[in-house]
């Protein structure tokens, strides 16, 4: 039955219905491009895959123990990749230079190396702070701030050019000029600014320039996947939808208030009384930075250790991961293997994936052993562990330790992707892009690449926006969601538009000379709803339809 279900899944992959993209002809509400796939039988696995990309998920990647394709290569590339991914970790601000992280996470500062590469970095962050302050103050200084940003951009600073592109595109402190905004993004993207590359890719996607879009999103998706392997802030947190239709999404927002959440207080009380499950959950909050908590490896380690003393097997597995990563402790693969083995003996089958990973890499064991690695991956996969399926997929894709079988690799990737693993989505995107293992389909490849690309460290904008919103700093939240909206995030587009509709003048929407006029605010809200509707947001589609029907938009 299992094999039959997988075969059905593969057979009907072309039947996936993605959100329709429409022509860019303004005002043509009926001009719709035919969906890239036809058919009515959408298999359950792939249906859940698509739903997982649009629902609010707390965490999209749950394990460190994933092989890359390079891990199974026998070349100099392997050695370089191993040094990159296993011997070092890299901060998100290094992966995404120019990130606003130092503004919204005061404990983060720029390294001397970064400043040496870009002497303007301190000046750039100074002016970003001024921009954020100007938004909070109602935009009284916004023209002066925009002028200062323009002067830094004129020196060739790519981050300032990207920011200036954002200001022109939105009409913040400058007369709105989308062509000029895109020009600055082109300059910044050409010299490596990731966020401007996202703007460029999204522009091609909206204009249905499919050959360009697939190439641009492929590059960005690869950068995002690489960040999963080397970031010390792994994994990825999904953006949160702050509204449910016209109303605030109170249930979702309540879960992101950190220690102020009543449910957390109850959970902590249970943990203090010796409840091992509660200890494990609190450890997860700190380890992954969930529910409004900042990542704190030392606190996570403390709570997991307490849970382990009570015999909690999931905490044993996570201690194995912590020692493999060196997250808050000295990296120790021997200890990692010990904890993973203890967890597996407690019938916690996902720990088998970690053990298989260590054998595949030769960490904490006498030598690499692909036969044993495969056996452990299969044990994990038999219990529906996504990591086990993904790693088996990599082995079959590369033909290492097994006979090469691209079709079988694809099947394993599909199952892993349906558990929300972005690196599995990336593998499927490449198959659709290249036609290896799946029928070539550039539209599907682009859509999957886009999903993966949006899970890179630049998605931290969403966390800061949500934190600002929960603090009542509506102007900051709107600014951050607006920045994300320009990068192509549908959730940010609808969140920013909803803030404009809900809060009106209190949204602190900043226009050319200060606070937005009613006309500027209405036009900006409509543009954001329109963009969200083109990415499948039904509520946004109903609003834009109503706006045209009632002739509210000129």
UniProtKB/TrEMBL annotation:
Residues 77-101 are annotated as: Disordered. It comes from the Eukaryota. Its main location: endoplasmic reticulum. Keywords: Endoplasmic reticulum, Glycoprotein, Membrane, Repeat, Signal, Transmembrane, Transmembrane helix. Residues 1-19 form the signal peptide. Belongs to the sel-1 family. This is Uncharacterized protein. It comes from Tagetes erecta. The lineage of its organism: Eukaryota, Viridiplantae, Streptophyta, Embryophyta, Tracheophyta.
């Amino acid at each position: 039955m299992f094999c039959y279900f997988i075969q059905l899944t593969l057979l009907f992959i072309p039947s996936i219905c993605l959100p329709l993209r429409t022509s860019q002809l303004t005002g043509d509400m009926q001009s719709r491009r035919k969906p890239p796939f036809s058919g009515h039988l959408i298999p359950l696995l792939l249906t859940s895959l698509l739903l997982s990309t649009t629902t609010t998920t707390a965490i999209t990647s749950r394990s460190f123990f994933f092989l890359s394709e390079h891990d199974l290569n026998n070349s100099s590339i392997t050695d370089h990749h191993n040094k990159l991914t296993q011997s070092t970790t890299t901060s998100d601000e290094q992966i995404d230079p120019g990130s606003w992280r130092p503004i919204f996470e005061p404990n983060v500062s720029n390294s001397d190396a970064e400043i040496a590469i870009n002497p303007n970095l301190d000046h750039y962050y100074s002016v970003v702070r001024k921009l954020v302050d100007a938004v909070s103050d109602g935009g009284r200084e916004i023209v002066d701030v925009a002028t200062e940003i323009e002067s830094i951009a004129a020196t060739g600073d790519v981050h300032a050019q990207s920011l200036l592109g954002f200001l022109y595109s939105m009409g913040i402190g400058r007369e709105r000029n989308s062509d000029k905004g895109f020009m600055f993004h082109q300059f910044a993207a050409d010299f490596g600014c990731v966020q401007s590359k996202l703007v460029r890719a999204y522009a091609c996607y909206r204009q249905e320039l499919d050959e360009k879009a697939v190439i641009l999103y492929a590059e960005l998706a690869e950068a995002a996947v690489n960040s999963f392997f080397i970031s010390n802030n792994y994994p990825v947190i999904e953006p949160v939808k702050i509204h449910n239709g016209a109303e605030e999404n109170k249930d979702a927002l309540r879960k992101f208030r950190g220690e102020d959440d009543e449910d957390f207080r109850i959970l902590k009380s249970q943990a203090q009384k010796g409840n091992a499950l509660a200890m494990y959950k609190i450890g997860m909050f700190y380890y992954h930075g969930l529910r409004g908590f900042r990542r704190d490896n030392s606190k996570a380690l403390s709570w997991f250790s307490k849970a382990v003393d009570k015999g909690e097997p999931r905490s044993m597995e996570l201690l194995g991961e912590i020692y493999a990563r060196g997250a808050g402790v000295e990296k120790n693969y021997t200890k990692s293997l010990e904890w993973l083995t203890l967890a597996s003996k407690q019938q916690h089958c996902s720990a088998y994936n970690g053990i298989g990973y260590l054998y595949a890499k030769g960490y904490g064991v006498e030598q690499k052993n692909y036969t044993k690695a495969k056996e452990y991956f299969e044990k994990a996969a038999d219990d529906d562990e996504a990591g086990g399926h993904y790693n088996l997929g990599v082995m079959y894709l590369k033909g290492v330790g097994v006979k090469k079988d691209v079709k079988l690799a694809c099947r394993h990737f599909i199952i892993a992707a349906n558990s929300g693993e972005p690196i599995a989505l990336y593998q499927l995107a490449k198959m659709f892009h290249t036609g290896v293992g799946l029928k070539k389909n550039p539209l599907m490849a682009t859509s999957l690449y886009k999903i993966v690309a949006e899970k890179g460290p630049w998605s931290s904008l969403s966390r800061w926006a949500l934190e600002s919103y929960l603090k009542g700093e509506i102007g900051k939240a709107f600014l951050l969601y607006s920045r994300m909206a320009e990068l192509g995030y549908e959730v940010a587009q609808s969140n920013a538009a909803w803030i404009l509709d809900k809060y009106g003048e209190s949204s602190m929407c900043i226009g050319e000379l200060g606070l937005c006029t009613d006309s500027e605010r209405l036009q900006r809200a409509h543009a954001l709803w329109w963009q969200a509707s083109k990415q499948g947001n039904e509520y946004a589609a109903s609003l834009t339809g109503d706006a045209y029907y009632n002739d509210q938009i000129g």
